[in-house]
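Hi R.,

Here's the chain you asked about this morning:
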Amino acid sequence: MKHISVLVPAGSSIVDTIIAPYNLLKMANTYYKRLNKLKTVAFQVDLVGLSEEPVVYQGLFSVQPTATIHEVLNTDLIIVSPLSGDMEKELFNNREFVPWIRKQRIENDAEIASLCKGAFLLAETGLLNGKSCATHWTAHEQFQRRYPAVHLMPEKIICEDNGIYSSGGAYSILNFTLYLIERYFGREVAIWCSKLSEIEFDRVSQSEFIIFSGQKGHTDESIKKAQHYIENNYQQKLSISKIAEKVNMNGRSFLRRFKKATANTPLEYIQRVKIEAAKKKLESSTDTILEVMYGVGYIDEKAFRTTFRKYCGLSPKAYRNKYNRELAFSQL
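And the predicted structure, written out as tokens:
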């Protein structure tokens, strides 16, 4: 019998992100047993904590671990549940998981899957260095600053790199759990769980959910000034050299410092500001796509559509059809 460990973090977490994957895996286990006419389930699924004590979340909900890291000597898959709140504090609270995860990976060749901000705890092990990783879009800046050796994939809901998996945030963990179920139990079982639970199958991108609000969690005041200038003038044709002049910097230094502070080049930042403005227009107005395009400073329709899809994962038309409330009601 193979073994799956769903971690129960100490400190602060969101109880749904522990219980929902656990229940989906138990569901898959039961159906797999019936489908293959087995006498016992194929996987033992445990809620693994640092101790036997129940962990209370949000002062309301308690989760009782079914095993501890001291009892689980060999596991096949570790699901690293998300952390929430003050990340420094939560990583400290859960530091005892780190050597256990490393040992299971290095000595027992366990596969590891992080959910949402569980990527931070996984990255603490060093096992993600040089590998691709996904996490919740709200944590991208913090993650990149803390773990520069990890190749963050901001748009991805699901990342896989040589037996180490990671996922985007919030309830996309349900889609990710279905992905793991397909990996471990087969596609037929995953589709059955998808239909029974009414969870969308085969979602791969979180781009359409990202709200770009500017990457200002840094201390470079000159770059912040440049960011504010871009955000206030995105409708115009912006020149990188002119922006650099406005903050009294030469071009080469400006490019280097901008990239270091925001993890984007100035051009990428301008594009993201324009596309975020376009998204808001598509959500709330009846403007045509061309009117929206001109309104955010694009004059080349192909370039606008290509850039929109790059940062949103959908075409402008598909995005408007999905998120424009007035349009949705008019089609009823």
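The longest helix spans residues 16-35.

Let me know if you need anything else.
M.
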